[in-house]
Amino acid sequence: DAKTTQPPSMDCAEGRAANLPCNHSTISGNEYVYWYRQIHSQGPQYIIHGLKNNETNEMASLIITEDRKSSTLILPHATLRDTAVYYCIVTSNQAGTALIFGKGTTLSVSS
Amino acid sequence: GAVVSQHPSWVICKSGTSVKIECRSLDFQATTMFWYRQFPKQSLMLMATSNEGSKATYEQGVEKDKFLINHASLTLSTLTVTSAHPEDSSFYICSARVMSGTGSYNEQFFGPGTRLTVL
C-alpha cells in the first residue's frame, strides 16, 4: 500500500503558484520523498526528490516539514501544460526498490 | 535525464495471441527494470521487477506464466503477454532507476508506455 495521502484534486489559475500537499506520517529515517507527474497517456515524469532539506530545481520546489511527516510541492508559476496527475511517493534509494504509486492529485490549471 | 524507450507505443491484437513489449534504456545500463500497468482512471500498479540475468520477481496476484519477462541485457527488458484476452487491455509502462555518481539510486525514469488493446 502507498505510504502517502494526497487530496484527489486541486485547481489552479494559470500563472499562480500551485501548492500540492502530501502527508507521509509513517516515513522512516532512510526514506526519501519523491514527486512525479503523469500527463494523460504518457509515462510518469520525475519532478524532484528530497530527504529532509528543502529542494529546488528548474521545475519545482519541495518543502519538507521538520518532522518529515508531510511535504508540499510548489510549482511557482503554473501553466496549462502543468495539468497532470501528481504523485507523492516515499521510498528508499536502494537499487531494487520499485516506486509504489498511490492515487495522486489531479491538478487542473485553467486560464 | 536518462531516456527509457518502449516499443511498440500501441498494439491491437486478437484474443488468444501473444504480444511482446520491449523496454530499452538508451543511455545508461539498468540491472533492474520495473513493469507497471495502468487501467483507465487508475494509478500505476507494479507488476514485476525485472533483473538482468535472472528471473523476474512478480507482485502478488500477477500471473508469471501469463506475463513473461526477460531481461536479456543491461539495456533491454521484454514483457510478453501470452494468450492475451480483452481484460489484459491496459497501458503498460516500464521504468529503470539510474545509479548516481555517489553510488545511490536516485530518480526512476519511465518509458512512454505501450497501449495494448485485445479484441
Helical residues, percent of chain B:
under 10%
One letter per element, helices H and strands E, the order of chain B comes to EEEEEEEEEEE
Radius of gyration of chain B: 14 Å
What assembly state would you assign to the polypeptide chains in this entry?
Answer: heterodimer
The strand count of chain A comes to 9
Largest interface, Cβ cutoff 8 Å = A-B, 23 and 29 residues
Q: What is the β-strand count of chain B?
A: 11
Q: What structural class should be given to the helix and strand makeup of chain A?
A: mainly beta
For the termini of chain A, the CA-CA separation is 36 Å
Helix content of chain A: under 10%
Describe the structure.
Chain A has strands spanning 9-13, 18-23, 32-38, 45-50, 55-56, 61-64, 70-75, 84-91, 105-110. The mean pLDDT of chain A is 94. In chain A, the strands form 2 sheets. A 5-stranded mixed beta sheet of chain A has the order 1-9-8-3-4, with no helix packed on it. Helices cover 0% and strands 45% of the residues of chain A. Chain A is mainly beta. In chain B, strands 2, 4, 5, 6, 9, 10 and 11 form a 7-stranded mixed beta sheet that branches. In chain B, strands 1-3-8-7 form a 4-stranded antiparallel beta sheet, with no helix packed on it. Chain A binds chain B through residues 34, 36, 38, 41-46, 49, 87, 93-104, and chain B through 1, 4, 6, 31-32, 34, 36, 43-46, 49, 51, 91, 93, 95, 97, 99, 104-113, 115.
